[in-house]
Design brief:
2 domains; transmembrane; YitT; about 65% helix; DUF2179; alpha+beta; UPF0750_membrane
Length: about 300
């Protein structure tokens, strides 16, 4: 009984710590996004992509405050998020977007610069940082990605990235028509800066890549990766499918490992030192769970 109680207490402590960390992430994300909007973009009439961009465009063309538009336009996406991703996600995202709207009303941010290039780049940087931090906290500040995921599952014709690209082409096309070509071009720059920051916040400098090595010297390569570099590997068997007679032959072990992009040059150098003819395939990995992803302490 005590063991069970101890386990429950540990679980509650861990859950409480996670909620606290998520709240900090979301709070910092809200402040960063609000600063990007009020400190840079709104005064220059540049817009971002997604729901935020739609809200900014409508606010420029009407008398409706952007603080109201950001929340109202996100409501349908939040409902979709509730139906498909769960109540907890929907509550966190609703609170986050609501607080972003409130921040735009009650927090006074200075208008940092009137330089158009700096405004476009750093406005995007702060908005992207805010969105990335919110996503890491388990919420969203923009409902576009919720819709993109659902549309890609329904149609099977559009990937998430394709849907977002098409939506933003439409948004920036409307911006060029209503606001002018130059503001639209600066807005595209803003969106690119925001997208890069979201990618950096979510993946960081330790973005993982999968490395597959096909070589006749697989055992030596395995030892070098596990012992010298301190990485975990997976071995699976394969056969060469290349041959003049058309027969599958030459059985060999295939080595697979996961490394950060900072470790990849050393990893490739080590493999090619053992076998200059090794066939190395590198692929991006969005996320990893478990396994030996960190270096062991080598003595």
């Amino acid at each position: 009984m005590r063991a069970f109680l101890g386990t429950d207490k540990l679980y509650l402590d861990m859950k409480g710590m996670k909620i606290f960390k998520d709240s900090i992430m979301i709070g910092l994300g809200i402040i960063s996004a609000a600063f990007g909007l009020k400190g840079f973009l709104l005064s220059s009439h540049f817009i971002d992509g997604g729901v935020t961009g739609i809200s900014m465009l409508v606010a420029d063309l009407s008398a409706i405050p952007i603080s109201i538009l950001i929340f109202v336009i996100n409501v349908p996406f939040l409902w979709l998020g509730y139906k498909k991703l769960g109540l907890y996600f929907a509550i966190k995202s609703t609170i986050a977007i609501g607080l972003l709207s409130v921040s735009l009303v009650f927090i006074n941010f200075p208008d940092v610069t009137h330089d158009k290039l700096l405004t476009a780049v750093f406005g995007g940087v702060f908005i992207g940082t805010g969105s990335g931090l919110a996503i890491r906290g388990g919420a969203v500040l923009d409902g576009t990605e919720i819709a993109a995921v659902l549309v890609s599952k329904k149609t099977q014709l559009l990937k998430v990235s394709d849907f977002i690209l098409l939506l933003n082409v439409l948004i920036f096309g409307l911006a060029a028509f209503f606001l002018g070509v130059e503001p639209a071009m600066y807005s595209i720059l803003t969106y690119m800066a925001a997208a890069k920051m979201i990618d950096f916040i979510l993946n960081g400098i330790e973005q993982y890549s999968g490395i597959t090595v096909i070589s006749l010297h697989s055992e030596a390569i395995r030892r070098a990766i596990t012992v010298t570099l301190g990485r975990g590997v997976t071995i699976y068997q394969g056969k060469s499918g290349y041959g003049k007679d058309g027969h599958i032959n030459d059985p060999r072990d295939i080595v697979f490992t996961v490394a950060t992009r900072l470790e990849i040059p050393l990893l490739k150098q080590t493999i090619l030192r053992i076998d200059p003819k090794a066939f190395i395939v590198q692929q991006s990995i969005d996320d990893t769970t478990g396994g030996l992803l960190k270096r062991k302490g080598l003595h």
